[in-house]
Amino acid sequence: MGAMDIGIDLGTTKIIIYKPGVGELLREPAVVAVNTKDDTLIAAGQEALLMVGKTPEYIRAEFPLENGVISNHVMTELMLKEFLHRACSSFLVKHRFVICVPSSVTEVERRAVVRTIVHAGVRTIYLIEEPIAAALGAGIDVMQPNGSLVVDIGGGTSDIAVISLGGVVLSESLRYAGNHIDEAIVKLMLSKYNLSIGKKMAQQIKQQIGNVWNPSSDEKTKVRGRNLLTIYPQQIEVSSLDIYDAISPFAQMIVAAVKRVLDKTPPELASDIYENGITMTGGGSLLRGLPELLTQETGIQARVAENAIEAVSVGTAKAFEYADLLQTGFSQEQANNY
Ligand SMILES: Nc1ncnc2c1ncn2[C@@H]1O[C@H](COP(=O)(O)OP(=O)(O)O)[C@@H](O)[C@H]1O
Ligand SMILES: [Mg+2]
């Protein structure tokens, strides 16, 4: 039965469609380009990403789930349909699908996602909550009466959850994640260097030299942008210390949220978590120094899962093995209702 199952991680920045035993059928940036005159698809994924910020008036290219909410239903639907078609058009009907949508997405939006997938031809659909999927994917045995703390940091949303006995005991979801660091870097480059840069450049800076633990003036990278005073393109070199102020508030916010969740955690579970440590997933958890900072601030060992970026997609597909056991965060949707 397992071979007939497919997991979809509908992330805010990327989409992975995963089939156990086969691997990833698709991994694409969650971006789509649409012709605004007739709402037809122009490009999706990598190809659409190249268009962002460079489109003529009649084309709209964007990440429709960027902020952890569905900003545009038409674009989301066109994107999902295209990816389903590319990854698994020949076996949509035969397979059971489990989908993980960002936890901040509303019930109405969630139903819209299911509707799109039903309309694409899928008959059996389950939804899974992000923290459960992340924990399963990171290899945590979520069925045990043993508390785990999972921190998943994506592009648009971060989730902190305590899991035990196949259910989410308590959780907090923030509409604040990796992409917000990029925005902060854009602002800092403007105010500190009069340099106007794009979000892609900012993301590159973050990934290359972002460091919230031991930033130094030796870790440097080249930054290209436009000097606002001369209006000319300019290239400068910045260090991880130079950009620390743009990144540090983000790290503090995550630390504070984890502390809030720990404060509310019942003592027995808290002691499990102390033993087991904190598991970090999502691309945002790869920010250098974040596990060290979390460990220092909470007194609990924080580790980034080996498959941090893939964990949610792997966990979604794995959820079928536990379908009858998962207490919360896993539900079947009736195709007839859509
Ligand atoms: N090495 C890295 N260092 C810091 N941030 C990273 C790194 N790799 C990816 N990211 C960030 O992770 C975020 C995307 O995480 P991901 O889990 O793929 O998102 P989502 O699940 O929301 O689609 C982006 O903001 C991206 O810039
Ligand atoms: Mg994610």
What is the overall silhouette?
flat
Determine the CATH superfamily of the largest domain. ATPase, nucleotide binding domain
CATH level 1 name of the largest domain: Alpha Beta
Number of domains: 3
Q: Provide mean pLDDT, rounded.
A: 93
Bound compounds, each kind once, are: adenosine-5'-diphosphate, magnesium ion
Structural class: alpha+beta
Order of helices and strands: EEEEEHEHEHEHEEEHEHEEHHEHEHE
Helix fraction? 25-40%
CATH T-level fold name of the largest domain: Nucleotidyltransferase, domain 5
Number of helices: 10
Low-confidence stretches: none
CATH architecture verdict of the largest domain? 2-Layer Sandwich
N/C terminus separation: 25 Å
Number of strands: 17
Estimated share of beta-strand residues: 25-35%
Organism: Merdimmobilis hominis
Family: Belongs to the FtsA/MreB family.
GO molecular function, one term: ATP binding
Protein name: Cell shape-determining protein MreB
What can you tell me about this protein's structure?
- This protein is of the alpha+beta class.
- It folds into 3 domains: 2-132 and 313-337, ATPase, nucleotide binding domain (Nucleotidyltransferase, domain 5, 2-Layer Sandwich); 139-176 and 250-309, Nucleotidyltransferase, domain 5, CATH 3.30.420.40; 178-246, ATPase, substrate binding domain, subdomain 4 (Actin, Chain A, domain 4, Alpha-Beta Complex).
- 34% of the residues lie in helices and 27% in strands.
- The protein is built from 10 helices and 17 strands.
- The strands form 4 sheets. Strands 3-2-1-7-8-17 form a 6-stranded mixed sheet, sandwiched between helices. The chain has a 5-stranded mixed sheet with strand order 11-10-9-15-16, sandwiched between helices. Strands 5-4-6 form a 3-stranded antiparallel sheet.
- It is flat and about 60 Å long.
- The two termini are 25 Å apart.
- The model has no long low-confidence stretch (mean pLDDT 93).
- Bound molecules: adenosine-5'-diphosphate and magnesium ion (MG).
- Magnesium ion binds at residues 9, 11, 154, 282, 312.
- Adenosine-5'-diphosphate (ADP) binds next to α5 and α6.
